[in-house]
Amino acid sequence: MKPVSLIAALCLCAAPAALFAAPLEKAAAPVAVTLYPWGAEVTRALEVSAAEPVEYLVTGLPAGSDMASLRVSGEGLEIGAVSLIHDRLPEGTGAVVPEAVAAARARVATAEEALAAGEDGVAAIRAEAEAARARAAFLSGAETGGLSPKALGDLAAAVSAGVLEANRAAIAAEAEARRASVALEPAREELAAAQKALAAIDHPGEAGDALLVTVKGAGALKIRSYTDAAGWAPAYDARIDRASGALTLDRYVSVHQESGEDWSGVALTLSTAAPSERAAPSELWPEALRYGPPEPVAALRAEKTFAADAEPMMEAAPAPVIVGDGVAQQGVALSYAFDGPVDLRDGVEGLRLKLGAVALNADLFAEAVPYYDATAYRVAEAENTSGEVLLAGPAMLWVDGEIVGATDLPQVVAGDRLRLGFGAIEGLRLTRVTEDSAEGGRGLISKTNERSERVRIEVKNLTAESWPVRLIDRVPYAEQEDLKISYAATPAPAEEGYEDKRGLLVWRFDVAPGATQTVSLETTINWPEGQILR
């Protein structure tokens, strides 16, 4: 935006209303949307041209717009006072009204005039009925004092005839009024239709918000606002080709918005930034230690509760992530700009968009955990070489074009390892049998404190193909120096402390069709006399 001098800004902000003509009314529909996992920034644009400061009434903002998030800018423009109007729009006779709105308003005015004229006619007819009833009432209340019997008889006959005629006129007038009112029904329907059509296209300032902004210069006025009633989430199809070992992630995003307006033909950008999330790191509290005599359990619990209240724990903010081709790095956030305009209506539909696929070279093998499972499971591991962070989300699993299940894809940063299970391999059967188990010195206090166990593990391949297998089992581990644990395995494991988990052992081998791989594992545990193994 062009810099504004202090004097010019003061003139723009403080110029009296008399210096301005009526505000120029212009609608500003969304032209671009940056969508975050939670929330969206909506950009509107309109062309303005004013050699002197002019007030523009910018309509089209949804009801409940937040002034704090509004940003108004424009290259080559000097922008003065900005007012967000939630209700009644300012009066003005010089407003520039779109032709469609003007035509709709004219239709409403014509329908209102036609209906008013018809209702005036009905009212006139009903006035005649009221006059007739008044004549009848007057005649009925006529004075008869001092009249001779003959004159009284003549008066009674005249009153009776007059009342009858007046009542007949009133009844006829009421009937005519009813017919005239029924005849106005098309006029009422036309007025209702005209009002409905006007409400559909009239400036949203009446049903939403508007922006009154003072502008000088020529160029594009951009209005940015934020709404938290929108967001996007990823989804995947994870496909394994067993022949090539390729792992393909077909990526999708589900977009939703309930902002109070339709987004039609907007330029859509997905961003990993999280403006609605916490912006500062957690606060670390100091830890104070002390010693003293043993205290009752209740007192210790009370002290811990007090400490927890005084030093609340705070959850860490989630890390930003993104999927997509054409990804741009913006600081710590990534963004994806879609080609072509996107339509998304308010609150009535969810939009699913397909992004580019990610192809990774995967290691495909059978993972066996006989301690818990009776079959091995197909597992794929691959390094994320896409250069992007893959966002956590639901994934459908496919093997050689056939769907085998569903899972949740974890967040995987660029360069990290991705691990996905692709279902059970029913032909790879697992057994784990304890062949021998003995413990010396049974009882509360024992003289001989030793326990031994011998286990036989088998992986039987009943399929028609050879499988590379990763077998995982465990032996106990100790953190006490006097608790001695040793084991012997045939064949020896390829790895101890698998994934930094103490006591986990891993064997890797191939099992041919019809073959059985056997692992023997013997564990011995010794502990001090007079103690119990827990």
Automatic annotation (TrEMBL):
It comes from the Bacteria. Residues 1-21 form the signal peptide. Keywords: Signal. InterPro entries: CHP02231, DUF4139, DUF4140. Residues 33-138 form the DUF4140 domain. NCBIfam families: mucoidy inhibitor MuiA family protein. PANTHER family: DUF4139 DOMAIN-CONTAINING PROTEIN. This is DUF4139 domain-containing protein. It comes from Rhodobacter xanthinilyticus.
